[in-house]
């Protein structure tokens, strides 16, 4: 197992290198630059800025410098926010997005798995159709509709939770639910499909033949296998959820990481784009590794060499 | 039918309500199993032999449904009792071994837990005590050093070993009836012999009544006290095994026996049965074996023969007394 983890980590180094290289060159191919704005900046200041960040150097030199600072885990200064480095931005935004994302993940699993199991058990009955209709509704509603709706109902009408801002645990509730909803819906569908498959297996019949009740059949015999697709979905889901969403952050005024992905791209804030993309890739690789380890725990037939 | 039967099936009908019509998988089957005896059930695929005994534990998958009949087990009708009560009988009083040991064990659970589960479900017993008894029963079914294998998952076991595990989990609660649904069909021939030896051993050691479902006449000959031959959802012949082999009374049984190669024959004289079993969704009015029968006559086309007694404990559903040598239809 340790060997497997080590090998996976070693393999991911070239992947990260490739991501860094691709983002670096693709960004430079895009028209514009960090210091071009609608307001004309005098060419001397422009040149000074370029020189300050080394943007006047040949591209390959810039690339080499970028890689060498990467080796020191330094993602460089932000061009848009001169007083902060990209490391600062991530250090400040990520804990917020992480909390929100993990809360959303827990909600998504707690809603999605039971809903999926329930729908599978009530297969083809009215309750299955009803559950899956609610689920379809959840898929169809975009977050920028659900978020304001939740604010309207639970903050402005019922006064249960604050409508926005960050810091109090109660401020976590509405954005976490909004963020969780589409994921819970997807998890419910995955769980239902796989549970339907598993409940048809011979070993489920064996369990019933031993006298096991439906509760035991479901949660002990069927769920383990039924969760495998959910687990593999969790890798990308965790990376997505914990790096924030600009829509949620705008609606609920949350100082998360999500907006930097979008805003830095618009402002050609090269280092911030590359930093956040790399950070996302590392999270994704890490989450997928955890998923593979979880898989091993859930499915004894898989052995890692 | 005698009162002392462990299991008595009366007029059982289990139909599958499919899109293409109602398939009469089990159509008016009556059978009984006496304490300690082994009843062999023979028939080709689709003859209703498995579905009959899945009906006993009410494990017939949809769209199958038992529509009528009685299944009296130890004095109670299993078809009438609430599912909650039936669960106390499943596994505890009636054990069942399925055909394919590769798919019948849960790949996600440890062997020990799967064998011990039968006890944990039915008795107030600690997991450790249940596992101890699992070791005992696993060794009895021929898994050596069972204690060290409790933590293993099924994929580490061969097919024969898995079938032993299945048998162990069916026997651990000491049932009075063991149903074995083609327990050797999915196994290699050498492993088949070992598993059959195990059943012989079980017969002598556990005094459990066994229902042995198979399409292999040889297995019935070697193991069963009584045998029932099934064809298109019905029992067409029932007799002591020795009688059945010495004096088959139903043309289908006779035809089945002729499909066996006889030892000593210089030239193999295996005769396959011509034709195909009928479509269960549209059975003929008369005898369902008519199309393939070598003894058929006009009456068979009109009237389906009931089980007729051909001597003590020997019944067959045929209008013709094939031993009296009515002329076989030549084609």
Tags for this model:
heterodimer, A: 305 residues, mainly alpha, MetI-like fold, 75% helix, globular, B: 331 residues, alpha/beta, Rossmann fold, eight-stranded mixed beta sheet, four-stranded antiparallel beta sheet, 31% helix, disordered C terminus
Note the topology.
The complex is a heterodimer of chains A (305) and B (331).
Chain A: H1 2-29, H2 43-52, H3 59-71, H4 86-121, H5 126-140, H6 143-157, H7 170-199, H8 202-209, H9 214-226, H10 228-242, H11 246-252, H12 258-266, H13 270-298
Chain B: E1 7-18, E2 21-33, E3 38-42, H1 49-56, E4 64-73, E5 76-77, H2 83-89, E6 94-97, H3 101-104, H4 111-122, H5 127-140, H6 159-171, E7 177-181, H7 189-206, E8 209-214, H8 217-223, E9 226-231, E10 234-240, H9 241-246, H10 251-258, H11 298-302, E11 308-309, E12 315-316
Task: Explain what you see.
The complex is a heterodimer of chains A (305) and B (331). With 305 residues, chain A is mainly α. Chain A has a domain at 93-298: Orthogonal Bundle (MetI-like fold). Chain A contains 13 helices and no strands. Chain A has helices at 2-29, 43-52, 59-71, 86-121, 126-140, 143-157, 170-199, 202-209, 214-226, 228-242, 246-252, 258-266, 270-298. The longest helix of chain A has 36 residues, at 86-121. The radius of gyration of chain A is 24 Å and the shape is globular. The mean pLDDT of chain A is 82. With 331 residues, chain B is an alpha/beta fold. Chain B has one domain (7-93, 175-324): Rossmann fold, CATH 3.40.50. Chain B is built from 11 helices and 12 strands. Chain B has helices at residues 49-56, 83-89, 101-104, 111-122, 127-140, 159-171, 189-206, 217-223, 241-246, 251-258, 298-302; strands at 7-18, 21-33, 38-42, 64-73, 76-77, 94-97, 177-181, 209-214, 226-231, 234-240, 308-309, 315-316. In chain B, the strands form 2 sheets. In chain B, strands 6-7-8-3-9-10-12-11 form an 8-stranded mixed sheet, sandwiched between helices. The longest helix of chain B is centred in the middle third of the chain and has 18 residues, at 189-206. Chain B starts with 6 loop residues before the first strand and ends in a 15-residue tail after the last strand. Classes of the chains: A mainly alpha (305), B alpha/beta (331). The interface between A and B is medium-sized, with 22 and 27 residues.
